[in-house]
């Protein structure tokens, strides 16, 4: 704990928690003042964009920081490290996600932070670490060279000089001037454990080596498996939160829909009903036998033993019948409930996956809430329609059979007791209403938030431990859990009153039965034997009624759960990926036009991200988007993938508005490689095959070769069958990125979207992957989002973006020749100094 309090880490993939920006920065030093938090944000060049957000520092970043761009997330992570004021600073590609201007400003801020601090920098961009006291070059897990920049560059045949040559060669578009005059820090590789000077910086800038991968990891192959086709009902208010969207079929009971979904299980329903009826009838039968045995014990006849033996045998037969009927009930309704829960989960999961990206941006639809719905809500439904349904059916038979036996033995006493039955019914209604009014709906949000905090803390355990956030995260989790517990405590008090009323009513009926039965025996209207039979029958019948009422809360939990689940299942997404419109004939050509596009994110309608933007991309062209973080570059990629729809204007592919094209067809023809590579917890081969599931193993290997991934994959313990771990945790950042590129290569798309696709690669691999991507881009429309301008010099069109607008566009040479002081020229100069 003490050690980690003195060390701060900024990783290549920034980690944020689903809370406010202020909270995320203050995690660096929970006791920091507001002014200190703001000062750290200013040093990280984050204060300006934060204040421009709708709620400023109180803006929620969303799950995993989804509401922010990669550069914005990185600046918040850097502000968090600055606020910590550590003695040791670890920078693992800390500025890789930043544009040139932000990188320069943040590097200056980090240099201030690094003063008098031991700093270890992991870097691929060698121009950023020229000032390091010591540069350590790693190759295949060994330290092959170390020294200052000036010392290492003198050895022209050394590993460092070769890396420098790679980065200023024409292939990579680098600049010797940029390297020689570079300042600051670094990006990518894994931190060196080599000792450094007491206040100096040590840099590990070697080539990636495959890390050892655990043999067993949880797989996700089934998770991505078969999709179920569902009919959905319209959602009138798709922009509102789930709490305000009414069920599309309010006139139809949710429970009725559940039963209808289980209609195919009618044989089990019949068997279960027979079992419930039989088991429910055994209790009143037991009452009849019990009263008869008591009568036998009070008789003086010579056949007392014979009668006692007979009734004992009947007792045993009732026990055997209970076994048979109990098995039928539990098996039938248990299987029926389990199948319904599976059916509901499949429908819900398919419905969740088909929702548009904007729906997931809303706080109430975070992964914790969705996981809870798939798990807890489905379990509530299973219990109510399965086990609870059987128990209620059984108790209703107990009630009916008990009163039937009582009526046969003495109708007067039975009618008197029946007159009191409304009291039982009334108490049951009160309990049901109380349970309905205090349902889990009111507590589900706090429970989901607690689940979300737990999931994020487990997923980002390295950051939690690196910043000693165990106590802070625990406090945050306890706040949500305490709110949930308080709501449930209030519910428990109220439902307890309802349960007490129910129990009082039942014993009041017992009292009435005893009193009236005693009067009848006293007056000679009925025998003691008849009174016992009526009383025991009524006693067990009333118990059945009471037990049935006790199942009401479970039934209402299931009803509330069904309401939440059907709300998602019935919702028609604004952007439906499952539309069945026929694709255009002839395939996609690949021309793209953004015509006066204005865009605002659905959950931030007050912030205009793109403002009447015009951009024309011819088929086969490579168009590069450059500019500061948050200028709207990645938003354009999201619009081309149709993750979102425009607020005004249109995106056209091959001259057709993208809204008129089948989404599945569009996405089948578009390949995306993001800045933060996404891998699933399955094998390397399965991750690559997501690009084209029917691809052969040989095609997978060829795609890996193109992405320069084959060598490290084959060096893994199980090669292509190696599990990559949760989110690819067993691979380095560069390895994950190359697997993601191989996936895009295998897809063979008509349009290729590269969002900082090579930012995680070292110089050698960047050159090789760039060559592979150039081959892949041949004849394809390509949109490249880039901060490192050396990677897009050969683009047909370079569009410079500022504040959601294109302020300049043309080729590299045109932009430099036409306007020496233009935005692009300024960006070039920033990266050369």
What are the defining features of this structure?
Rossmann fold, 833 residues, six-stranded mixed beta sheet, ABC transporter transmembrane region fold, elongated, alpha/beta, 3 domains
What does this structure look like?
The protein is α/β, with parallel strands linked by helices. It has three domains: 2-204, P-loop containing nucleotide triphosphate hydrolases (Rossmann fold, 3-Layer(aba) Sandwich), CATH 3.40.50.300; 255-570, ABC transporter transmembrane region fold, CATH 1.20.1560.10; 592-832, Rossmann fold (3-Layer(aba) Sandwich), CATH 3.40.50.300. Helix content is 53%, strand content 10%. The protein is built from 29 helices and 16 strands. Strands 1-2-3-6-4-5 form a six-stranded mixed β-sheet. Strands 12-13-14-9-15-16 form a six-stranded mixed β-sheet, with helices on both faces. Strands 8-7-10-11 form a four-stranded antiparallel β-sheet, with helices on one face. Strand 2 (88-92), helix 6 (100-114) and strand 3 form a beta-alpha-beta unit. Helix 3 (34-43) crosses helix 5, helix 14 crosses helix 16 (441-459) and helix 14 packs across helix 20. The radius of gyration is 35 Å and the shape is elongated. Residues 170-252 have low confidence and may be disordered.
